[in-house]
Each structure stands twice: as C-alpha cells, then as structure tokens.
Design a protein that fits this description.
The chain is α/β, with parallel strands linked by helices and 749 residues long. Helices cover 40% and strands 16% of the residues. Residues 2-225 form the GDP-fucose pyrophosphorylase domain. It holds the Pfam family Fucose_pyrophosphorylase. GO terms for molecular function: ATP binding; fucokinase activity.
Length: 749
C-alpha cells in the first residue's frame, strides 16, 4: 500500500480534497484523523527553497560565502580549544566530542560520539558514528581512527544484526556509476582500488548477476566486531599500506553487504531509538551544566523534551534536576530573577508529570514579574503594593512628592485629562516586562487623534463625603466606602479594576490621603473595543495623571509611564510602557528603556517637518476591522517563551529593536516608503511571536491592500486588540477611497 506525502497527507487538511482523498489508499483514515485539524500557514518571504540531492551539495551550502547564519554548533558537547583541534568552519550537531579529537574544515559531524584520538579530515561527513570510549583494542596496535578528506562515513543498525555496520565512500562517488565508466570508490577508480588492495572483481560482484557492476551493488562492507570494522574500513580507504596480507583474508572471509542490500535491511526503529537516547544524554548534560554552573540561560523546557525521549530514565533525570533548584535559587538569589527561577521549576514539574504542582507554581511566576516590575519603578514599591491597604507598615513608604492628607476644610477640585491614542510603527514587545527589566527596549510610535478629537479621558473631582465613586462610559457605577477593601489580585471580569489599581499605584490608599473627603472618578474611551491602539494603558495613564494632579503628586510623563507599567501588572493584564508613552507624549517619538532601579525611559521626540506631516496625512491609514481579541493571553504566551529563553523569540525581539532604530532614521529622512518596508518586516516578526495574531479576514484585507501599499501591520504588538490595521499607502493611490469602494462592493470581505 502506497501513500504520497506530497498529495495524500496534505490533502487531509484541505476540505475540498476530502472526496478525492477517500478513494485513495488510507484516504478514509487520513480524513478521519487529520481532517478536523486546523492548519496555520506562515509565508517566510525571505526564505528560499533548497533541495540537496548529494552529500557534496550539503557541504557546499554549509560552507558557501553567503551562509553566515548557518548554526555550526547545536546540542553538542565539545572540548576546549586547548585539548582538541576542531575547525571553526566545521558543523557539529548532536555530538559528543572527546578530548584529543581533530575535525577538519567544512566537515559535518552529526549524531555521533567521537572518542579521543580520532582524526576526521576536511569536507567530510560523519553520521551516527559511535566509537566506544575504551579503545584499548585499537591502542594496542597503535592505530588511531582516521577519515581522509572528502569522505562520508555513517553507522547503520541492521535488522537481526547486533553490530552496527560501518559504511563509507568518497564525497563525490556516484554509487550508480558503472565499474568501467567513471566508477569510483573513495575518490579512486575501481581498477586502482582493486590493484592496491589485492581485491578481485568476483570478490565484489557475482559473475552470474545480470546487474551492471557499480558501487551500489558491490559486496564491500564487512560485518565484524566494531574495532575490526574500523581497521578494515581504514584499510579499504587506503590508510593501511602494506597490510594486505592481514586485512585481505579477514575481509574476504567476513559476511559482507552492499549499499543496495543495506538500504533494504536498515533497522529504522533501532536507529531512531539510538539517536533519541543519544540526544537525550546530550540534553541532560547541557541542562545539568546550566543548573550547576550557569544562570539558567538555556531553554530547559526544550531540553526536557529531548531528555524525555530517553526510553527508561528520562523522567528520573528531570526529577534529579528539580531537586537541584532550591539550592540554585538560594545561591543566586541576588542576581537570578525569581520569575525565571520559578518558570524553570514549572517546566521541570511538567516534565516530571506534576501538572497540579506546576499549575500552582505558575501563580508565583506572574506574581514575581509584578513584584520585579514594581521594584524597577521605585525601590521597595513592590512589597508595598502587595500589602493590605490598612497595614501601618506601609507608612514607611511615604512619597515626598505627595502633599499629605486631604483632611482639611473642603475645597472643590476638578482635574480633566484627555489623551490621544497611539499608532505603533515598530518595536512593540521590547517594552514588555520582564524583557524591559533585563534588556534594552526600543519603540517607534506616534500619538494620533480620532476624527479630530482626543478620545480617551477622565475627570477626577474631590467630594465632601467619604469614599470613591467610579463611573465609566457605559454608565456603570461603583461606590467604594471602605478603601481598605481594594487589594490585588483583582477579578479578571471586574470592570473597575483599572481605577482600583490606579488608586493603589498612586498610593492614595496607603498614604491615608482620603480621610474626610472623597473622590468622584469618571472615565471614557471613545475608541472601538479591541482596536489595538493602546486604549487600556492610555486610559490608565489618564487616571493616574489625574489622581496625581489632585493630590499634588509627581505627574511628570516619565513617572506616569512607569506607574502604569506597575498598574498593568496589578491588574493581571501585563503589558509594557509603549502604549502610555505613545499617548502621554505628543507627536512621533522614539523611546528607549534601560534596565535598572529605577527603570530609565528616554523619549526622543521627532520634530516632524512639514513635508513629513504632509506625507503621513496623505499616506498613513488606520482601519478598524471589527475583529476583537484581548491582548493578555497572547502576552502571557510571549512572556512565557521569554522566561524560557526561547532563542527564536529573543532574536525576533532583538530584530524589532533594530528596526525601531532604522525606522527612526527613515522618518528623520522623510522616507515613508522605507517605513513601510520596516512595518512589513515587523508584521512578519509579530506572526512568528504570535502565530494566532492574524486570521483569514485580516489576511484578505492585507491581500487586497498589498498592491496599493508600501507596508502594513496590525497596530499594537500583534497580540493587542488585533482590530486595527496601519497601512502606508503608495504615493497618490487614493487608498482610502479604494477601500471604501471595495467594502461597498464586497461587504463579506
């Protein structure tokens, strides 16, 4: 029974192909098992399709001058440069290399265990080689294993065979080239090979066979004990001059196999199991070193996935690592973030099958991020916020910027704060804790009004009665008489948790500022829900700013931005600083953050020329799609990947910060087309960070807009509301009119 991986398997994910597939072999089973699965595709525009037909093509690709991004070391144990000679250009993957090993330039070593004294030449490929540590059998004869330049060697387990068979040939040998027509073995013509080794033609090929004689069907590779195979192998490769009398009869009298027979007899199950166990051992060694000597800088969840492939002891290894965690945290408590340490324990608990304990510990991860964020805003702030509102000890945290109690003759005060929304061009995610607490962040964004007005605002008024009255724009009201009742964690469905959190971060409650007077707080946001324009954070900034103005606190933009960062952690939504920065600072700005206590924010306003303003007014378009999706779940997934030190995520966010710097230069040069290109790349990176940030509807809109645009993206970090599109149209294309016309003609799109 045959099945096509190109047609049949893929057709199972395409509903329109199901009727056709059901008539194919295994078609019914494929439809039943895979037909209900959802597939998500991502077009990697910068990738090219590569197909390797030969070993030499693989090496050519890895050693090409434009292969700067080739990963040359992965999941491997390699000795120090002072006790080995491993070329920098060699590629070593899933290998354990002992001291005293030499590997030549541009060679590829994969899934192997190379013992001391082995020498591998340049431009060679070794796959699955496992030379035992105890090589006394070879040392007794003063023989070291050697593989010449431009050779391939691999070990293969065969069905019904205890020993793995060692197979080898020249990198440029074509197994199907006939004996008399350019046929070679180990880079030499067959005639020379047989002459040098004393081998007869009938030793390799049966005289009764009608097959054309070639390397493919030559009975060449002996099945012997491991070290005998190594010795005979080096003899066949021409490395044992003058020893034909010893090796020739050993080779002739041994059972031998051809490449053709070998490919029909490979024990794939044994090969896969051996490879999995080997990689699990390597992963365990790396994880142990990371815990014992390092700062948990590796993705332990990924390493655990490798370790759990080990047939019998994978879970036990993970349990041993889990037992090391308390000591690690104790030793590194001053420099290792608790959020990272807790996340490692969560991953190890899951690897050990302790799902309930892992779930319980997850709360500590997010609580630690909130505490670390609060501490980065102001020393001691984190512990202060998490204490009970009625605690007397909180008085020690008095902020000198506050004027103190409002317990004095009543005087009506009213503060109104109105703010714009923000459109981010590039850099989102680099502003989000814990990234921004540990690494520099860069964001390029712009404040915009909607239909000529500032859509987000609050009015804070003092009242002559106790308590706080909160009124939102849907006319919902909440009266809080006992302010000591306000304490995190807040219910995710609480519509007033934003204002409650603002009362906490401004320290109005803890400082006992409201003794005989009260507050009336009204909020509004005339922005479509889930627009991705930073509405929640900007509204929080407005409320915080209003409260600080009422009590005479520090209402500077930088202080407000940092307080909102803490506020969002208290709310449980998370989030970074870019939204509030985008709303409270006018115009276009490039903002950087630097880790420390306090977290430093530097805002660089871009003085927009009249030419740039004209171009943006003409070509910048923001479209609300009506697609609503909340950000915090997406944010949690991205934060989780960062806590795990996911390499792809880290490199993607680093690239976003670089793009923000490039975008700043583009705007300073009034190059709106370049800004569009940057937005396109940012959109692709956001799709890597969050594969669910788009949907079919949004993709259709972008497909329609693509011919008319220099660039586009969802506003926000890609996981925000997801409802707003930002597009940079091409010059004089009248995009707005085209979209309106298109929607009228095709309302379903």
């Amino acid at each position: 029974m045959k099945m096509s991986l190109y047609e049949d398997l893929v057709a199972a994910w395409v509903p329109t192909k199901h009727d056709w597939l059901r008539h194919r072999p295994l078609g019914e089973a494929l439809v039943n098992k895979l037909g209900k699965q959802r597939m998500f595709s991502y077009c990697a525009y910068d990738f090219s399709f590569l197909h390797f037909g030969t070993s030499s093509e693989v090496l050519d690709h890895l050693s090409a001058s434009d292969s700067a991004l080739v990963g040359r070391r992965h999941l491997c144990s390699i000795p120090a440069t002072t006790v080995s000679d491993i070329a920098a250009s060699s590629v070593v993957l899933s290998c354990k290399i002992a001291d005293g090993v030499s590997i030549g330039e541009d060679s590829l070593i994969y899934d192997s265990n190379i013992s001391s004294g082995s020498q591998i030449g340049s431009q060679s490929i070794v796959v699955g080689m496992n030379v035992p540590k105890d090589s006394d059998n070879m040392a007794g004869n003063s023989i070291k294993f050697m593989l010449p330049d431009r050779h391939c060697l691999w070990e293969v387990p065969l069905v019904g065979c205890i020993e793995r068979v060692i197979v080898f040939c020249g990198i440029h040998d074509n197994p199907k080239n006939p004996l008399r027509k350019d046929g070679t073995f180990c880079g030499k013509p067959w005639e020379k090979v047989m002459h040098d080794l004393g081998i007869e033609e009938n030793d390799l090929w049966s005289s009764s066979s009608s097959q054309e004689k070639c390397l493919w069907n030559a009975k060449l590779f002996p099945i012997l004990s491991y070290f005998e195979m190594l010795r005979v192998g080096m003899w066949l490769m021409g490395l044992s001059d003058g020893k034909n009398l010893h090796y020739l009869p050993l080779w002739r009298n041994s059972p031998r196999i051809s490449l053709e027979e070998l490919h029909r007899s490979i024990d794939f199950s044994k090969m896969c199991t051996g490879s999995s166990n080997h990689q699990a051992d390597l992963a365990a060694g790396i994880a142990k070193a990371c815990i014992n000597y390092g700062m948990l800088g590796r993705d332990l969840s990924q390493l655990c996935e490798e370790i759990l492939q080990k047939e019998t002891s994978g879970v036990e290894i993970c349990k041993d690592f889990l037992a090391l965690c308390p000591k690690l945290i104790e030793q590194n408590s001053k420099i290792l973030p608790k959020s990272r340490a807790y996340q490692v324990q969560v991953d190890l608990l899951r690897a050990c099958g302790e799902e309930t304990k892992a779930y319980q510990l997850e709360h500590e991860v997010w609580a630690s991020i909130a505490d670390e964020t609060a501490s980065a805003v102001r020393y001691g702030f984190g512990a202060h916020l998490l204490e009970s509102s009625g605690s007397k000890s909180t008085l020690a945290f008095r902020n000198n910027n506050h004027v103190g109690s409002m317990d004095k003759p009543f005087c009506q005060q009213t503060v109104k704060v109105e703010l714009p929304v923000r459109v981010d061009f590039v850099g989102g995610w680099s502003d989000t804790p814990p990234w921004s607490l540990e690494r520099a962040g860069c964001v390029l964004n712009m404040a915009v009004s909607l239909e000529g007005s500032l859509p987000i605002g609050t009015i804070v008024e003092t009242t002559n009665s106790n308590g706080v009255l909160i009124i939102d724009d849907s006319r919902k009201e909440l009266y809080i008489k006992e302010l000591t009742s306000i304490a995190p964690p807040f219910d995710g469905d609480d519509p007033f948790r934003l204002v409650k959190s603002a009362l906490l971060v401004t320290e109005i409650i803890h400082e006992n500022i409201l003794v005989s007077n009260g507050l009336r707080i009204r909020t509004w946001a005339n922005v479509p829900r889930g627009s991705g324009l930073g509405t929640s954070s900007i509204l929080a900034a407005a409320v915080v700013k209003g409260l600080l103005q009422i009590i005479g606190g520090d209402d500077s933009n930088e202080n407000v931005a940092r307080l909102v960062l803490v506020l969002e952690q208290l709310m449980g939504t998370g989030g970074g600083w870019q939204d509030q920065i985008g709303g409270i600072y006018p115009g276009i700005k490039f903002t950087t953050s630097y880790p420390g206590i306090p977290l430093r924010l530097q805002v660089f306003p871009l003085v927009a020329s009249s030419q740039l303003i004209s171009k943006l007014q003409e070509r910048l378009l923001v479209v609300f799609t009506g697609q609503v999706r909340l950000a915090h779940q997406v944010l949690q997934k991205v934060v989780l990947r960062y806590l795990r030190r996911d390499n792809l995520l880290v490199s993607s966010i680093k690239r976003l910060t670089e793009l923000a710097k490039i975008g700043r230069e583009a705007l300073m040069n009034c190059d709106v087309d370049k800004l569009g290109e940057i937005m396109l790349e940012a959109w692709r990176l956001h799709q890597e960070l969050d594969p669910y940030c788009s949907n079919e509807y949004v993709d259709k809109l972008f497909a329609f807009a693509d011919p008319y645009c220099s660039g586009y993206k969802l506003v926000g970090a890609g996981g925000g509301g997801g409802g707003g599109l930002c597009l940079i149209t091409r010059q004089k294309c009248h995009m707005c009119q085209r979209i309106k016309k298109h929607v009228r003609e095709k309302p379903r799109i």
